[in-house]
Specification:
Helix content is 2%, strand content 40%. With 249 residues, the protein is mostly beta strands.
Length: 249
């Protein structure tokens, strides 16, 4: 399934991650203060609701069995909002502090051979929240289990992997292949931080983004999973994971 890029206007809210400028190599922010590095699955760890925002909640199930799917990486937006969480044992997720008035597509990525889901392209839904609104979006993921169609990711890296708030951190991965060719969604996401990073090509099969950790981010360990989608909506079966260690500023 082919993709089209959308670029909604940025909202000037503190919880909003800055758009990766130009080539995506500088100036973007990867997170805001987290409630705790050990936040529970299913909920983005944002300390308190912000003004002019809403909440997206939902449940993810297996399309073949109807059973809930745990550990589905949820991103809200992918070019601008860049929020992230992960489903809990009952397949449920909650993403608070979604800027009101902005297009907020919900994307779901799961390893183990599942097709990924995009609310905008699969369901033809344009999710735009009102201030204070809670929007419910349930969806299912289709099991594919066709390794030949999946993108291949390797050599994932975070440099440095130990940093302090306010420091620049670079995310790298080699991504290629996948049925229909590689889609622009080459992502690293940390549910513990509540944010995702969109990497862009820097030549060949190498993808990269440099982001600035905001000064107020809580110290702790933040695992980032790396995944990508093909234009036929295949996802890599194994998500490489690297932990970013944040020290006290």
């Amino acid at each position: 399934m082919s993709r089209r890029a959308t670029t909604p206007p940025l909202a000037l809210v503190a919880v909003f991650v800055a758009l990766l400028a130009g080539s995506g190599l500088a100036g973007a922010q990867v997170g805001t203060p987290a409630a705790s590095p050990g936040a529970s699955p299913g909920t983005s760890p944002v300390a308190s609701p912000a003004a002019n925002t809403g909440t997206i909640t939902g449940r993810v199930t297996d399309d073949a069995t109807g059973e809930p799917l745990t550990d589905v990486y949820i991103t809200v937006g992918w070019e601008t909002l860049m929020l992230a969480t992960i489903t809990d044992a009952d397949g449920r997720y909650t993403v608070p502090n979604v800027p009101a008035g902005e297009s907020a597509p919900v994307l779901g990525f799961h390893d183990d051979g599942y097709r990924y889901h995009n609310s905008e392209f699969d369901d033809k839904i344009d999710i735009v929240l009102d201030p204070g609104q809670t929007y419910s979006f349930d969806f299912s993921l289709v099991p594919l289990n066709e390794p030949d169609g999946e993108p291949q990711l390797n050599d994932a890296a975070i440099s440095p992997d130990r940093a302090a708030p306010g420091q620049d951190v670079t995310f790298d991965v080699t991504a290629k292949g996948g049925q229909g060719g590689l889609s622009p969604e080459v992502i690293a996401a940390s549910p513990q931080l509540g944010r995702m990073v969109l990497m862009k090509s820097v030549g060949g099969d190498r993808y990269r983004a440099t982001v600035t950790i905001p000064p107020e981010t809580s110290p702790g360990d933040y695992p980032f999973a790396f995944f990508a989608a093909s234009n036929a909506c295949y996802v890599n079966s194994v998500f490489p994971t690297i932990t970013l260690h944040l020290d006290q500023a």
